[in-house]
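Hi V.,

You were right to ask for the full record rather than a summary. Here it is.
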Amino acid sequence: MPSVITHAPDAMQDEEQNIGPMAVVAAATAATIDAVIDAAVQQVNHRPRERLGGRYRRLRRQSLLIAEPLSAEDCCVQAMPDASPIKWHLAHTTWFFETFLLERFQSGFTPFHPQFRMLFNSYYEGVGEKFPRPQRGLLTRPSLEEVLAYREQVDARMLLLIDALEADAHADAGGGGSEHPQLADFLSLLELGMQHEQQHQELMLTDIKVLLSMNPLQPAYQPLPMSLRLDDPAELDLQWHRIEAGVVEIGHAGNGFCFDNETPRHRQFVEAYQCASRLVNNAEYLAFVEAGGYEDAGLWLSEGWEWKKREGLSHPLYWRRGSEGRWQEFTEYGVQPLQPHRAAVHLSYYEADAYARWAGARLLTEAEWEHAAARLQGGGREFFGVAWQWTSSSYAPYPGFTAAAGAVGEYNGKFMVNQYVLRGSSSATPLNHARLTYRNFFPATARWQVSGIRLARQG
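Predicted structure:
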């Protein structure tokens, strides 16, 4: 194994790049995944209306492809209260379309099964009764086969509705009339439903990973393709990009889709700060583990220390000690050697905060993260597509935020307490779901998501 960082603050390369508020940052010349994703997240996250049916089909098919390697038994089990069975994800995303679109817009609507309204309601009080979240793994009925039939029937009805409403809208436009009065509301809810399913596609991948990791057989989610080698990537130097103090704008702007918690766009003042050019990697985090980071109470927040002791934690969630004492990591391809230069992932906020303190640094605020990601572009790495990045910002409403009326307004606003914001996107996030202003959020103890660390220092 290559040598690891034994004292993080001195070992990190201190190459500062001064970036004023109006500076233009040169794009990287090398073709990197960040450059690809930087371009992708600037795209409007919707397709022309005439392609909605095809987009809907592709989206729904992707959820089935995620479930394809799994057995019916895999799909029924719930690993922990925070996770859900794959079967439940497949049903709940279907429930969303049935409840919020078909029930409202389909003439002569009848539910697939009256009890599904309660069984697969996640947290919408405005919709009615809910089945307890920690007990979703007890739902052996309906069977996976019936859930798949539920999806098929709802999809057929949704596609007919999409075609009918679009046909009406085109007819109105051809006659010189205004847009179909129901179409705007339908399209808004359809987009929300598709974005919602993409969120669940990511959760499906992370929920099945934690489930399989608990099995002593350590089964792989899928076999390692013969053409793929999990070689350790080349080491990226850690540089510090300095960004001057100033008033910055954050939050969603434009006509593309966003969740309500990304609005309204507003101004915040940030002091001068330095942003790390990449995420903390396994070698660096291993140095923290081997230096006794999990035994040093002075590095931990009080609640984090008590949680760590209670859970008996001494390393990241999926790290394992091999028979020869070498570190391994449980992956979608089963147990693999720990790769030193890959980003350290599946870390809680408490672990991220403790590591940052040990490294003589801190976590970015979400305003700093969004500003840095927009400014650095190709000058930074791993902002998207690798790991969600913990910020030190509590999940709270932006100034002027107002939740929508009705059950749909429960989507984000009521969770704005006792959670922290994560920014970017992960290897499990659908590519066209990433967005510069996206605000993910989890409690400080969450480790089963693909979450990592980007460091900051005062300017």
